[in-house]
């Protein structure tokens, strides 16, 4: 009120002095309005600068003394700068009716524009405060892995929508409810235009409520080429940084409609699964003779097993009066069975296998590529690089150990294998048959 009174006094004083100078009334009115407008602009500019300097400077000093980062984010997101515009805006609201007192037709449009700016300033201030809350919550353990960005975007959309309604009401002179009623007829079009936003909003709520994905989770979505860590979850998209440092953007609602793999459970459990097979050449599978068993008994991991198992088999065959002149009669050890036992003993004593999770060596159905012996075991390291090294070390050892059990790993003949067969001297007439027989052996 004091500002309005002072402006009113200045208005009367300048106007009277212009008339005393002999200027016509109309000229004095225009000149008086121009002088007051320049004065108002200077005051608004000076007030804005002083207010921003004082508020920002005070908050900077306050932020340096506090341990929290919330005040730092207030400065970063320009909340204080928006709040500093309130005082100059109040000055404008009070001064406009006085500056344009001789031109009443301009007061109402200018007042409308001022009200529109008040609405915009309110929206900008609240939006800046929301960004501050978002940035601060991302630094806290409670909200670090939550899709805060999605909720901020939803509130922002609602905020801009309400701001647009108020501005429409101010410019047209119609009530907000009249505009909402008019929008009812166009709701189908709006639903079509904002389909992705609505779907994303619903998906964000479901993702957060069901705890399906968190920021930092490793997810795999082969359909969209995503295999990496989630770095951002917002209203419409989920950003995944793949392990090759590329970024894959997935619509949020696809996390609800399509399937994906989240590796969080594996990381939390502390064990990562190895499920891989060694294909044994079936023609190398055989019964073991006593001499072969004695030779394999020198392998430390199966020596105790062979001693106990062979004693049990001998007792069984003796009680059943089995003729062991042929190994197929009664019970006998096989090289593949001993090899399976060796693998089981090897992974059981391995320092990097998880001893409290499933540990199994099993034989799968024979195929055209051999007899698969599958390892189903978990490592005690979940980091990708260490996991791959552990798995490679295990299979390096097992592939090298196969030959000690008189077994062979199945592999298709390469071009060099075929070439060597046909470059060897042929002493018989049926060379093709000899080559085939040689390949079999």
UniProtKB/TrEMBL annotation:
GO terms, biological process: cellular response to osmotic stress
Residue intervals of the Mechanosensitive ion channel MscS domain: 196-264
Principal subcellular localization: membrane
Topology class, membrane: Multi-pass membrane protein
GO (cellular component) term, any one: plasma membrane
TM segment ranges: 28-46, 82-100, 112-130, 151-170, 176-194
Cell inner membrane is among the record's keywords: yes
Keywords: Cell inner membrane, Cell membrane, Membrane, Stress response, Transmembrane, Transmembrane helix
Gene Ontology MF annotations: mechanosensitive monoatomic ion channel activity
InterPro entries: LSM_dom_sf (IPR010920), MscS_beta-dom_sf (IPR023408), MscS_channel_2nd (IPR006685), YbdG (IPR030192)
Localization: Cell inner membrane
Protein name: Mechanosensing system component YbdG
Organism of provenance: Pontibacter oryzae
